[in-house]
Amino acid sequence: MDISGEQHLDIKHDIIKKRINAHGDVIESRPDGIGAPKIERPLQRHGGRLEHHETYCGSCFGAEQSDDDCCNSCEDVHEAYRRKGWAMTNMDLIDQCKREGFFQRIKDEDGEGCNIHGSLEVNRVAGNFHFAPGKSLHHTNIFLDDLLAFQKDSYNISHRINGLSFGEYFPGVVNPLDGAQWIHETSNGMYQYFIKVVPTIYTDIRGRTVHSNQYSVTKHFKNLEFIHPNSHPGVFFFYDFSPIKVTFKEEHISFLHFITNICAVIGGIFTVAGIIDSFIYHGQRKMKKKMEIGKFR
């Protein structure tokens, strides 16, 4: 989401999501329906069961926009309800969700985590992207409540950022959030990163130019008990672009500049050597004087 009003929900392109266990190991994909009750004849939109040689058209449970609408999966019912702006309640009564084992899958995923990597394209205006449970945040106060009915109060937002950058890599760039992690120890909440992005142009010794960005960051944790009741757990990244641009350029130094540096180094060595020699010389003279005075006495 950004301040221009543009929103992208449920981004899948250039994004790879993996289920992982508590040890970070990737869990193999399982076919949908494991643990689901077996229903030989699905419920039709008209209320009866699917008959032989009859095309399946599942009910949208009142959320149909026309008489021809069909909801043949639990996800279709979700979409129909989202379009209406309705909250889904009593999901155990929805035939498609029961058949696909929706509740069983949620219970089976208890204690799991996720690994996400990929890239996003954003406008050069202030905005945010976030990782939060749920299909989308368009109807946040409706859908997320339904999905997290089992675990909202104990949802764990512990996370580790293996790498986060804005733009291409260039030599010498430092990304402050690479390797950052936060362990969930308090009650449920929102973890927020506030990022200031600085446009950067890097030109190497061969003249190749890389247009990229650097950034600085501050972070903050919000306990859900003390913020808006419609807020939900997740990791949020709020970014803004700096009006200042930084330019890095690699250059060869001239031979005269090189000679000057060598002379400066040699001159510095002689200066330091002279100081040390003078210190030793005067130290020896003082010691000799003391010995002569003692002998004279």
TrEMBL record:
**Which UniProt key words apply to this protein?**
Membrane, Transmembrane, Transmembrane helix
Q: Which domain of life is it from?
A: Eukaryota
What's a single GO CC term here? COPII-coated ER to Golgi transport vesicle
Domain Endoplasmic reticulum vesicle transporter C-terminal intervals: 60-277
**Membrane spanning residue stretches:** 255-281
Pfam families (alphabetical): COPIIcoated_ERV (PF07970)
Stated name of the protein: Endoplasmic reticulum-Golgi intermediate compartment protein 3-like isoform X6
Q: Which gene encodes it?
A: LOC111309113
